[in-house]
Every structure is written in structure tokens, then in C-alpha cells.
Amino acid sequence: MTGMPAFIATPSPPDLAGVLGELPPEPFSEHFQLCVELVERYAGDWALALAAELALAPALADALSANELAARRGFVPGFVPALQGLLRRLAADGVLAVAGQDGTGAPRYRAVGPWPSEHRAELRAQGLATDPGIAPSLELLDLAGGLYPPLARGEVRGEQVLLGAGHVGLWGEYFSNRHPVYAINNVIAAVAALTRAPAGRFAVLELGAGAGSATEELLARLEQAGRLGDLTRYEVTEPSTFFRRRAERALRSRFPGVPLSFSALDIDLPLDATATAAGEFDLVFAVNVLHVARDLPAALARLRERLAPGGWLVGGECIRLFPGQPIAAEMVFLALEGFVGVELDPERRPEPGFLTPEVWRRLFTGAGLAPVELVPDLERIRDLYPFFNSGAICGRRPL
Ligand SMILES: C[S@@+](CC[C@H](N)C(=O)[O-])C[C@H]1O[C@@H](n2cnc3c(N)ncnc32)[C@H](O)[C@@H]1O
To answer: DSSP 3-state assignment of 312?
Structure first.
């Protein structure tokens, strides 16, 4: 490796294991933290490279918001959310400073330079040497980064490139339990769900199951706990036929005899338009799905109705620990119109995509769920370690 010393992760807080609560400490090793931080740094270096390619620095001698910068540089309006993500990342890395707001209340940024050089090649080599399993994260960032310049010029749409047939394999590798940076979401959500599964027999509804990585994790944990036989029903739902069929094939062969059923529930649609009836489930389980809902408060209120009294909604989510904190995966998702085109509300959904613990608590409480619990205690952990960007929000339908 040349050009830069090896990347070193933030020191792990000595008492992290003590604040994980119901989670097992093993997955949160120093090795895992290095993987997560390497991916975050890689996204940061992509932002530096793109700032150079898109000639952002000269314009940012003036304080500009993403909208103003797009207008100044002649970028199409559809690029503004992705540009906002870049500015936020550059500000978090100290290259830009927040300097007031524009007329819509959006932050303005000004270059405070000097601009550091980027080291994607070295970071990539170190990342793959540290753990080849993180390759899908790096490849997806490369795919998104390459897309930004033509996206800025209005030559392509994010969906067209990122969700094109040629990348189905990469998405499958990304949302997989063999991809450690993603799999942690499934581990946390599955442990939280297992802890809250009622004693005795119970029924599960899963949303946005994709190709089934979270389902696999939850079923494996139920199996380890000797509880697979307590399932009366496990309804695996996913609107994409392609991914649902994939999930069905894999899960039926891995878990024969489990009462699995498969259907296409859309969390944006009213209850009466879908196959499941109200009050049927003891557990509603969703990993990295809730944040895609167009009208999130309405979707949560509908999900509450599917729970039996005393049942739990467990939403595994990638979580922004502080307002404005950048998260690597967002560089990919902010290029998708479907991800950013959601209904916003200053209190309950201040921005598209990943939300903070406080906003999630307000959303679950507002949907009539109580108590609302966060697994692990991210409001405490974030003061010890700022890259713990995964958690499960758990809310109970009162008896
Ligand atoms: C980040 S992936 C979730 C991965 C999946 N939970 C797993 O375990 O691998 C988001 C999933 O939500 C699904 N989705 C998108 N819009 C949806 C909607 N309106 N209702 C339900 N699911 C949706 C997508 O098809 C995709 O499979």
C-alpha cells in the first residue's frame, strides 16, 4: 500500500459490551468495527473524489445550499438529494462548514479547505485484506459513485442504473448474512424479535423480506432456541416477485416443516387491499423496510392494526445517531427517486431515509405503540461510539 498509512478504527469503548443489553457481544468485535469504519471512510473518500470531478470547491467559496449549488453548477433538480448527501459528508469530515440557511431552511455550506486527497485504492485494498466479506459494500459504493456525474447532468435515472438487471447479483450479495456490514441489522432485529416473542404458540408477519436474509436469521435463532415448533404461521411478504421467489426457494429448503407462507404485501397500501387480516399476528417483523414507506406514520398505524393485543412490531433499521450524521449506504440510496420521494414532516419525518432514535420513538409512540424500546440502547451508546448505526425499534400494541 502506498500514499497513506493504514486506516485505524476509532478505539472501541471498553464498556461497549456492558451497554448492549439483550444483544450478544461477539458480533461487535474490533474487527467488525474496523470493517464498518473502513466502509464509512471509503464513502467519505468517494465524496472527496466526486467533489473534485463535479468541480464543487470553486463554487463553495460562497456559502450555498444543495439547491443553490445545483443551480450554480447547472445540475438537474433530481440530483439535489444526492448532492445534499455529499455536502453533509464533506461537512462531517471538516472540509465544509455549515454557514447559515437558505430561504427554505436548508443548510448552506462553505469550503474551509484545504481539500485532502482521497485514497480509495488504498482503503479498498486494506478493506478487502481485512475482510473480503465487505466487498459488496465497496462495490455498491463504486456503482453509485460512478453514477453521480451522469445523474447530475440528467443523463440517467438512479433506478435505471442501480436497479438494472445487471446488478441483481450485487444486491443479493449486499442484503446477505454473509456480508457482515449488512448482516448486523438482521442479528440485532432477530435477537430483539426473539426476546419479545410470546411464550407458547405465535404467528409472525414479515414485511419487505427481500430474498430472505432477515427471515433466515430469525428462523435460525428460533431454531437455536428450540422454538421453531411454536410457530403457528410465518407469513413472509415481499412485493418483488423475483426476490420473493428466491426467498421461498431458499427458506423452504433450509427450514422444511416450518409453516411458511409467501405473499406480496405493500406497506403503502391500506389493510383491506392486502391478504392479511387485522389483529392476526403476535410479531410484525421488518428489517430495513419501514423507512421506505411513503407515508410512514400511516404505514405504522396500519401495522399496529395487524398486531394482536400485546403483540410487538420490531423494525430493524439503519439508524442515524445524530441529526446530519452521514451513513455510507445513503450514497447509494439517495440516488433513488423512490427512496427520497416520501412524505416529510418536521417532527415525525424530517428527512427521507435513515432516521434518529428520537424520531423513531416519536413515530412508534404516535402510532399507538407502548412501550417503545430501542435495541440496543443507542441513545447511550452513541456517546461512547459514534458508528453504531444499527438498531431495532420495538413497539407493543397495548393489551
Ligand atoms: C433493504 S431491502 C430489505 C432486505 C430484507 N429485509 C432482507 O432481509 O434481506 C428493502 C425491501 O423492501 C421492499 N419494499 C420496497 N417497497 C416496499 C413496500 N412499499 N412495501 C413492502 N416492501 C417494500 C423491497 O422490495 C426490498 O426487498
So the answer is: strand
Going by alpha carbons, the residue nearest to atom 16 of ligand 1 is 292
Residues with Cβ < 8 Å from 116, sequence gap 6 or more? Answer: 48, 93, 95
Task: For 109, list phi and psi in degrees, rounded to 5.
Answer: -125, 145
Domain ranges of the chain: 22-174, 180-324+347-396
Grid coordinates representing 203 are 404467528
Ligand 1 atom, smallest distance to 316 CA: 6
Mean pLDDT, all residues of the chain = 95
Return d(Cα 353, Cα 293) in angstroms, integer.
10
Q: Does domain 180-324+347-396 have CATH number 3.40.50.150?
A: yes
pLDDT score at 6: 87
Gyration radius of the chain over CA positions: 21
Distance 55 CA to ligand 1 centre (A): 35
What Å distances lie between residue 201 and 204, 228, 271, 281, 353, CA to CA? 10, 10, 24, 11, 35
Residue 101 has pLDDT above 90, yes or no: yes
- 105-140 pLDDT, tens digit per residue, is 999 999 997 899 999 999 999 999 999 999 999 999
